[in-house]
Amino acid sequence: MAAQLSAAHVLLALAVMFVWGTNFVIVKLALAHLPPLLMAALRFLLAALPLVFVLPRPRVPWRNLAAYGLVIGAGQFGLMFFAMTRYISPGLASLVVQTQVFFTIGLAIFASGERVRPFQIVATLVAVAGLAIIGSHTDGHTTTAGVLMVLGGSLAWALGNMVSRAAGRVNVLAYMAWSSLFAVPPLVAMSLALEGWPRIVAGLHDADGFTWGAVLWQSVGNTMFGYGAWAWLLARYPAAAVSPFALLVPVFGMGAAALWLGEPMPAWKLLATALVLGGLALNVLWPRWRARLRDG
């Protein structure tokens, strides 16, 4: 297994980060027409169909597929889409959701009984300082409720990471497609209960070509291309060589929000971004830096 990505594969990793980062802006624009829970339900419906008729079901227990669909569908995307309606800006959402790294580490440590390493404590404190700055600057673009909802979505993502890890080595596209089947019913039920049938009908009626393209993009761009290419890279290179690229998701996300939506970038937001990304970078890269220093 090669240690460093080839130039072509670096471009592929950057393309995945671009798709994942700019998707926050695409979601925000589509939410102008579709209710958030309905949009999440449609996203997972199109992620499941027609792939479940083409790809065989992964050899994992049904309860694993159901758990992943529930926590990722109703948890991560349900909360995140709802927050992005009016509670948090897409740029900051792309940043805050990356705290799933720390939730994943915490859950893994809790499950395995391992001790927390000092650099992980420092990295977490640095990122929390950035989140505290965001929470103290609520305005028309971001609210405390929005930050908390995206943090809840991050925790759900981390739980999904634990569930998918328990599934072992499987076909990622097949796993995403079959687990998506279990995300649709709870999202539809919540949409009916919280958004109501009249709002659902009005949203479907008002949806234009861009809106349906955005929903399709959630499935084709993010799931089929994004997760598929990411899994392909992880199968060919060490995780330490691939995972740092994920730090670019909020860079693309915040850049796209500023460029396309005119999202303001005041000094406090830049400082918060530097702290959160700095904490993430320290957590991801410190083991590699220390190994290089040790080896001379």
Give an account of the 3D structure.
- With 296 residues, the protein is mainly alpha-helical.
- It contains 14 helices and no strands.
- It is globular, with a radius of gyration of 19 Å.
- The mean pLDDT is 87.
Low-confidence stretches: none
Overall outline: globular
> Helix proportion of residues, in percent?
over 70%
CA radius of gyration is: 19 Å
Please count the beta strands (DSSP E, at least 2 residues each). Answer: 0
Helix count equals 14
> How many angstroms does the end-to-end distance come to?
23 Å
Q: Tell me the series of helices and strands, N- to C-terminal.
A: HHHHHHHHHHHHHH
The largest sheet is: none
Our count of domains comes out at 1
Strand content: under 5%
Mean of all residue-level pLDDT scores: 87
Structural class: mainly alpha
Sum up the structure in keywords.
single chain, 296 residues, mainly alpha, 14 helices, globular
Short synopsis of the structure:
77% of the residues lie in helices and 0% in strands. With 296 residues, the chain is mainly α.
Outline the fold blueprint.
Layout: H1 7-30, H2 36-48, H3 62-86, H4 90-96, H5 100-112, H6 118-135, H7 144-167, H8 172-180, H9 184-195, H10 197-206, H11 209-236, H12 239-242, H13 249-260, H14 267-295
Helix pairs in contact: 1-4, 1-11, 1-13, 2-3, 2-8, 2-9, 2-11, 3-7, 3-8, 4-13, 5-7, 6-14, 9-10
